[in-house]
Design the sequence.
């Protein structure tokens, strides 16, 4: 009898809450992923969407460039308003840049600022030899380089190949910056090199071409980027 009494007592002393199942926490609702819209304006890729409680539009380098970093940003009451505001920011920026360009007496073109050249050099696709030429010319400063030295610095076997590559570099940068060289301004203007630099004057006659000299603004940009 004592045994049965002890058993009943032990049963009575058990914690009645141990057998109760713990309430499950309500499942959290999956967070909605922000939808990013892609567009283009001028030479930039535009990304827009809802961010941190407001509509935001941002401009970035346009693919396939490997350059990174935001160019400009704007917000608005709606996504469309943010995009429109960003377009205005970009257009105002381009107008300011064009007005600040230096008029070059050597070849009659408006030379971009260091800021513009930095952006262009970062975004256009340059070959190894083209990059090597720009580096060498930037270090040559006001003295510049002969065609032969420039070709050698870039690994070209002929001066004509180096000059063609140099012209192609000028066209790439001019196209990116939407710059139109004035064809009748100087011999260099139409071939694409006017936006890169100019030929030094010589006393040896027309058959003796002077050294290639980069614009000072481009020299500084190349040293920052390449």
Sequence:
């Amino acid at each position: 009898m004592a045994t049965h009494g002890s058993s009943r007592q032990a049963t009575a002393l058990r914690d009645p809450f141990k057998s109760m199942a713990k309430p499950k926490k309500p499942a959290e609702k999956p967070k909605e992923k922000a939808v990013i819209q892609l567009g283009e304006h001028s030479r930039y890729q535009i990304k827009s969407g809802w961010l941190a409680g407001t509509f935001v539009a941002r401009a970035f380098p346009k693919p396939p460039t490997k350059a990174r970093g935001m160019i400009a940003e704007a917000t608005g009451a709606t996504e469309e308003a943010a995009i429109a505001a960003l377009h205005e920011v970009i257009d105002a920026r381009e107008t300011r840049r064009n007005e600040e360009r230096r008029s070059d007496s050597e070849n009659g073109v408006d030379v971009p600022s260091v800021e513009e050249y930095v952006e262009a050099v970062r975004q256009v696709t340059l070959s190894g030899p083209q990059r090597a030429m720009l580096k060498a010319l930037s270090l040559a400063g006001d003295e510049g380089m002969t065609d032969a030295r420039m070709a050698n610095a870039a690994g070209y076997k002929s001066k004509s190949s180096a000059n063609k590559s140099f012209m192609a570099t000028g066209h790439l940068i001019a196209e990116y910056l939407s710059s139109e060289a004035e064809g009748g301004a100087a011999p260099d203007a139409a071939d694409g090199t006017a936006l890169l630099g100019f030929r030094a004057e010589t006393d040896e006659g027309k058959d003796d071409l002077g050294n290639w000299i980069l614009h000072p603004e481009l020299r500084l940009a190349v040293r920052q980027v390449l």
